[in-house]
Amino acid sequence: MAPRADRPTHARPRRRRLLAAILTGMLALSVGIPTALAHPTHAKPHEPAAVAAPEAPASAQQPAATAAPRNSAPTAAPPAPGKSSKHAKRPDPAVGGGAEAGSRAPVVPTAGGSKHDKSAAKEAKSLARSTGKRAKGKDKGGEPGSGGEAGAIEQRRAQERAGERTPTHVAPGKAKHVESLRAGAPRGPGASSAPAQPSAPLTAVAAGTTAAPILPVPAAAAPSPAAPATHARTSHRAAHRRSTRTRVRAGVAASAPASSAASAPAIAGTPSRNAAPRHRAVRAAKHGAGSPSIVAPLATTITKIVGVVPTPVRLLIGALLALALALAVRSRFAARRARRLERQRGQLLEDVGLLQAALLPVPPARLGPVGTTAAYRPAAGPGAGGDFYDIFALEDGQLAVIVGDVSGHGRKALPHTALVRFTLRAYLEAGLSPRGAVQTAGAVLDRQLGGSFATVLAATYNPRTRVLVYASAGHPPPLILGDDRRALESITVSSAPPIGVGKPTGTRQSVVSLPGRAVLCFYTDGVTEARVASELFGTARLARSLGELSPAASAADLLDHVSEQVDRRPDDMAACLLWLEGEALAPRAMREELELDRESAGSERTARFLRGCGLAPAEVSAVVQAARAEVADVGSLVVELHREGPHARATFQHDNIAYLHTRHAARQAELTVSS
Amino acid sequence: MLNPYVVRRMPRKRVRVHRRALCRRRTTILSDTHTSNPDEVGAVEFAITCQELDERTNVIAIEGDLDLSTAPRLKWMLLDSLQEGRNRLVLDLSRTCFMDSTALGVLVVVNRRLEEDARMAVVCDRAAVLRIFELSGMDGAFAIFPSLDEALAHVHAPTTGAG
Predict the structure, then answer these.
(1) Residue A424: which of A465, A483, A471, A469 has the closest Cα?
(2) Which of A190, A227, A390, B24 stands 20 to 30 A from A25 (CA)?
C-alpha cells in the first residue's frame, strides 16, 4: 500500500494522541506547578545538558554527519518517488508531472520505504546510544512524575515514530529540495540528470541522494549544545518544520534521508539559533506554561457553548452581527460625510464673510474730526438680511452716511440692498444733496426693486460748518443727542415714502446745526421694533440707551446694550454712530424742506407739516395759498422753513431736481399707453 | 374712542373667519360688537376677520400685531379678495396694535395690484399705527380714515379723489 493511502489513518490518531499527551501533561504540570515551585532546581532542567554540551560534538555529531550520507544514500533511494508525489500539488508543473507519475507506481516505494525505515531506526538508535544517557538524565530532572524509565520509553517510542513517519513527513522537505534543485544550480551527477528526465521517479531520489552530503554544512556550522535525543519525544512536526526551515533558509538542498531517517542527528545538527525555540517548545510541553493552558480550556468551553446554542439563536446572532456590521459601515460613511460637510461649511462661511464684508463695509474709526462706528446684528430666522449702511468721506471734505432697509427680507433682499446702497452712494459722490440723491434714486430704482421697497436715509455732515443735512425715504430719522443727552426732536410729518412704492420720494430734507459735542445715531427699524415684553423698544428707550453709553463707544456696544434689554428682535438691527467733539453747545434744527407738486400743495398733509414746524395757523394758510399759486405755474417748488427759536419763517425755493422724476413719469406714461 | 363698528346695519352675506387655533376669542363678527374694551386689545392674539358686505366690498379686520409672521396672511386674504372680483377693500386696523415694515410692504404690494376701478381704504384711529404710516411716509399713499363709515363712503364713492 502506498504511504499516501494510509496517511490519514495513521497520522490523525497519532496527532490526536500527541495532543492528548500534551494536554494531560499540561494538566499534570498544572497540578505539579506548586511542586516545581517548591523545588527551584526543576525550574531549568536543561541547564545541566547545556553545560555538558561541549563534549557532545565529538561523539554525537560526527557520526551523524558521516553516517547519514553513507547509509541513507543507497537505501533511501526507492521511497523518494512516494515522498515527492505526496507533495505533487505544489505549483511546480515540471516537478508535478514527474511526481504524479511516480505516485502511480506504488510498488517500489513500499519495499524501499520499509528498508529505509529500518535504517533510520537503526541510526536513531545509534544516536540515542551516544546521547541517551544525558537525555535520560535530563528527562529525569524535567519530569519528576515520569521518572527515568518513562523517559527511556518515550525515547524509544520517538525513535519508532521517526522510523514510521519518514515516508510521510519528510516528504515536504524532499519536495522542496527537488524544487530548489530544479530552480537552483545543479549539484553532482544526480542533479545534472534531473532536468533531463523530469517524469522519472528516480530523478528526485538521485537529487536527494546527491544532495545529502551537503547536510553537514549547517550541522557542522553550529554544534548544538543541547542534548538532541531529548527532542525526539517532543514534537515530530516541530522537528520536521525545523529541518525544513533550516534547509530552505540555507538555500541548500538538504537530503531527506539525512534528516528523516536519522531525524535525531538532523536535529542535533541544526544551527544553534534554533536551540532557543526548541527549548521553549520543551518547556511548554513539560510545564504546560504559556498560552495553551489558558486558551485550550477556553476554546473547549466556547465550543461547548456553541454546541448547545439552538439554530434560531445562532441565526439571530448572525443577523445581529450582520446588522452591527452594516451599522458600522453606515456610521463610517456618515462620519466621512460629516467631515466633508464640515469642511464645505467652513469654506462657505468664509465666502459669506467676504460677501458680507463687501455689502457691509467696516468704516474707518475716524473720518476727519468725526469718530465713526457701525454695527450690524442680523436677526435669527427668516427676517435676516436687508439692512445696509455706509459711511464714507466725500471729495469736498464732507462725510456721508447711508442707512437703509430693503423689505422682503432674507437672501433675496441682498442684491437689492447692494443696488440701493451703491446708487445712493454714487449720487452723493456726484455732489447731489441728500434729498436730491434720494429723489433721483427713487425715480431710477422705482421699478428695479422687483416688488420690494427700500427705506433709506442719506446724510452729509460738513465738519467745517458743523451742519448735518439728511433726507429720508420712509426711514426713521437719526437720533441726535447733544451734550445734555437729550434727543433733538425731529419732524416726521409729511415724510417721503420709501423707494419702490410707486410714489415720488425724496421730498423732505432736514438741516441740523451741531455746534457742540454730540452723538448721532443712524439706525434701522429693527432696533426700535425689537420687543420688550409685549411693547416695542421704541425711540425713547433707544435714546436712553445711547445716553448711557460711554463717550466714543462703538455701535456694537449700543446694539449689545439694546439686545440685553429686549426679549425678542424679529428684524435685523443696524446702527451707525458719529461722535462729534466740541463745546457743550446743544444741537439745533435749522431748516426743514418739503417739495410740493400740484397735488400735494394744497393737501391737509402739507398744512400739518407747516404747523408742525412751528408756523402760526394764520401763516400756514397764507403759505399754502402762495405755494398753490406758485406750483400751478412751475410744477414743483420747495418750501423751506427756517426755524429760529420758537418761530419759523417760510421761503420758497425753486428746485430743478424734479425734472428727473417728471421725465421718468413721462416715460412710464408712454410705456403704459403703448402697451 | 374705539369704534365698535355697526355690523348689524350691514347686509351680511357670508362671514369667513381665520384665526389661530388656540384663539380664545369668539369666532363671529356679531360678538365683536360686545367686546370693545381697549385694554383687552393689546393682549389679544392675532386674528383676521373677513366680512363680505356685498358682491364687491370686503371689510378685513385685524386684531393683534401685524408683523413678519402674520403679514403674509393679510396679504393672501387681500389678494384672494381681489381675485374674487371684490375690489372695494376696507382694511380695518382699529384693533391692530402694531404694524411693521413687512405689513407696510403688504399694503404697498396690494395697492399696486389695484385695477383702475378698484379702491382700498384703511380704517385707523390708533396713534401708534398712524405714526408708523406717517414715519414711513405712507400716509400720503393710502386713504386713511378714522372710522369705518368714512372708509366705506370712500370706497363706494364714484371714481374721484385719492384711491
Answers:
(1) A471
(2) A227
CA-CA distance, A671 to A667, in Å (whole number)? 6
Residue A126 identity = S
3-state secondary structure of A87: coil
511-570 of A, contacting B, C-beta below 8 A: 525, 529, 534, 536, 570
> Please, are residues A530 and A537 in contact by the beta-carbon 8 Å criterion?
yes
State chain A's mean pLDDT as an integer: 70
Q: State the pLDDT at residue A463.
A: 94
**Is B100's CB within 8 Å of A492's CB?**
no
Q: Is the pLDDT of residue A607 over 50?
A: yes
pLDDT at A656 (0 to 100) = 58
Going by their DSSP bridges, the two strands B47-52 and A531-532 should be labelled as unpaired
Query: What's the ipTM?
Result: 0.70
Of the candidates A404, A414, A519, the residue with the CA atom closest to the CA atom of residue A457: A404
DSSP A458: E
Sign of CA dihedral A378, A380, A382, A383: negative
Whether pLDDT at A272 is above 50: no
A570: chain B residues, CB-CB within 8 Å = 67-69, 100
| Weakest mean pLDDT among A29-43, A70-84, A443-457, A571-585 | A70-84
What predicted TM-score, i.e. pTM, was given to this entire model?
0.56
Residue A675, pLDDT score: 60
CB-CB neighbours of A211 under 10 Å: 28
B contact test, residue of A405, A490, A501, A608 with most B CBs within 10 A: A501
Tell me: pLDDT of A171 over 80: no
Crossing angle of the two packed helices A171-183 and A236-250, in degrees rounded to 10 = 10
The Cα B21–Cα A217 span in angstroms is 101
Ranges of beta strands (E only) in A104-178 are: none
- What is the model's pLDDT at position A398? 93
Distance CA A410, CA A427 (A): 27
Write the pLDDT tens digit of every residue in B41-55.
Answer: 444 678 898 888 888
What does each C-alpha distance from A158 to A134, A155, A335, A422 come to in angstroms? 16, 5, 60, 102
Set of cell numbers at residue A367: 473720518
| Dist. CA A350–CA A274, nearest whole Å | 65
pLDDT at A58 over 60: no
Does A570 contact B69 at a Cβ distance shorter than 8 Å? Answer: yes
For A237-258, write each residue's pLDDT tens digit: 544 554 444 444 444 444 444 4
pLDDT at B70: 87
Query: A60-74, A81-95, A136-150, A340-354: which has the highest mean pLDDT?
Result: A340-354
Amino acid at the residue A658: A
User: Could you tell me which residues of chain B have a Cβ less than 8 Å from any Cβ in chain A?
Assistant: 42-43, 67-69, 98, 100-102, 104-105, 108-109, 111-112, 131, 134-141
Q: How many CB atoms lie within 10 A of CB B127?
A: 9
Helices (H) and strands (E) in chain A, counts: 27, 15
Look up residue B1 and give its three cell numbers.
374712542
For an interface test with A, the pick among B39, B101, B107 (most A C-beta atoms closer than 10 Å) comes out as B101
User: From the list B111, B112, B136, which residue is nearest A474 (CB)?
Assistant: B136
**Structural contact between residues A303 and A257, judged by C-beta atoms closer than 8 angstroms:** no
Residue A179 DSSP SS3: helix
- Contact list, B134 vs chain A (CB under 8 Å): 492-493, 495
Helix (H) or strand (E) holding A608: helix A604-612
C-alpha cell at B86: 371684490
pLDDT value at residue A167: 44
Torsion angle defined by CA atoms of residues A159, A164, A167 and A173, in that order, rounded to the nearest 10 degrees: -30
Residue A387 identity (one-letter amino acid): D
Neighbours of B10 (CB within 10 A): 17
